[in-house]
Amino acid sequence: MKQNQSSYLALITIIIVGFMLLSLKLGWLNIFFYGAEINPSVQGIDYFAVPKSFLNLLEGRSIFDTWGGASYGPHSTWYLAHPAFSLFIASWFSFFSPWLSYWLFILFSVGILTYCGYLISKTTTNKLKKSSSYFFLLCAFPVYWMLFVGNMHAPMVLALTLILISVFELSYSEDAKDIKIANNKLFAGILISLFTKPIVLLMLPLLLLTKETRKTIIKSLIVYVIVSLLFILLPILNPQGVGLDKLMNVVFDFDFIKDKMNIYKNQFVLNEYMKDNSIHWLNIIAQSEYKFMHIDVFSLPVFIDTIKVLSPGIYKIPIYICLLLSICVIFIEDKILRLESTLLLIMAISLSFFLSYNTVWEYQFTSVLPIIALLPILKEKGVFYKKYISLLIAAGVFLYLPSLYFLFRGGNFDNTALTFIRLDRIIPVLILFLIMIFQVIRSVIKHAQFKYFNKAGISEKSVENFFFK
């Protein structure tokens, strides 16, 4: 019976993916997305800057000078990935005509998500869970939006998948060969993230403190720093660099960066600093406090501020909590419990992006999909928080459904409408984050060996009562 269910789910997955690909051409699903319904000609808007970045490099122009020189494709947003991505990945697609290149990249992205499903399916022998791994990675509305706009987010999903699986495998592996394979996956995941979208940054303190992952992280950071320096120092790779002197004058001037290097404040006009390869790193600072209040933006800061404007510092609380717990988790002596807690905290850290960063687009919720796909396997493994996994999956299901935009089509998007449109994106992620964080806290309190508790005459039971009673 389970084998039949597995086959049916595999068939359903294939049908849904096929339907999405056809819809990219025929527009069947566009009614669920404001940008696609209002202006379907924006299809591919996030993509065309990607191959254009490599063509710029060939012409001796900045990788980030998206609108300089001859145009590529009908429209584009600003290229902002690591400059190495332009050379190593975008180059493959740059010699095709714009629309052919777009469709090839769509297939490339679907292939990556399929591979993510394959990686997760290898962690279980249960055939139904194997099939569900592909379903959870491919069959979600944010996936369609990622494909529609052509955003290069699929490699980031792969990076997170590799990181999650590596820590999962390290939790239960004793054989030296298995441990080496797991660390190779972690090495690849860290580098893919750093060379695409650096969502991994907040995970680095935890992974550096964890003895099972420390050496791998150091190796990956060494490679990353060397490659990144090449793209700063070599004129052939940074043809419109401002030079080290000018760069060092502004790199720690955060007020200047926020005021002069923010693409939205500059009305999409690029100055010389924004054509230097360093903009890839500095843009994180440039947009750190800027809120782009747009119907297609789905972040907790925008969700709350639509109702009542709060101090920006409040939205950094999830980050502070994650960093504090990153230090606490390492005091759990039992290896399996410590790495299970580490994996759970890594999941929570990846979710903190939606709660703390201001400008979050709907396609970025695809990074939650490998977490949901792994949850049934974690329950099967009997992790310490297994009784909460059904609730986590139930909350995650809402991320597979369309946003509530379709209920307000053609109407006035007042604050009430905007709040409801974002509701089934923000609230599920918030629930997932809170459950994960509280379970990590409980694990730390129950199992971490804080020697100063005993010295101060404080029992672990009294600490637990303080937090949970």
**Count of domains:** 1
Give the SSE order as H and E letters.
Answer: HHHHHHHHHHHHHHHHHHHHHH
Would you count the extended β strands for me?
0
Shape, please? globular
Straight-line distance between termini:
44 Å
Helix content: 55-70%
Instruction: Work out the radius of gyration.
Output: 23 Å
Topology:
Layout: H1 2-26, H2 34-38, H3 49-58, H4 83-93, H5 98-121, H6 127-138, H7 141-149, H8 154-172, H9 176-194, H10 204-209, H11 214-233, H12 244-250, H13 254-260, H14 279-286, H15 300-307, H16 317-329, H17 335-356, H18 369-381, H19 389-397, H20 415-447, H21 451-455, H22 460-468
Helix pairs in contact: 1-6, 3-4, 5-6, 5-8, 6-18, 8-9, 8-17, 8-18, 9-11, 13-14, 15-20, 16-17, 16-20, 17-20, 18-19, 19-20
How is this structure best described in words?
By secondary structure, the chain is mainly α. The chain has one domain. The protein has 22 helices and no strands. It has helices at residues 2-26, 34-38, 49-58, 83-93, 98-121, 127-138, 141-149, 154-172, 176-194, 204-209, 214-233, 244-250, 254-260, 279-286, 300-307, 317-329, 335-356, 369-381, 389-397, 415-447, 451-455, 460-468. Helix 13 crosses helix 14. The chain is globular and about 60 Å long. The mean pLDDT is 92.
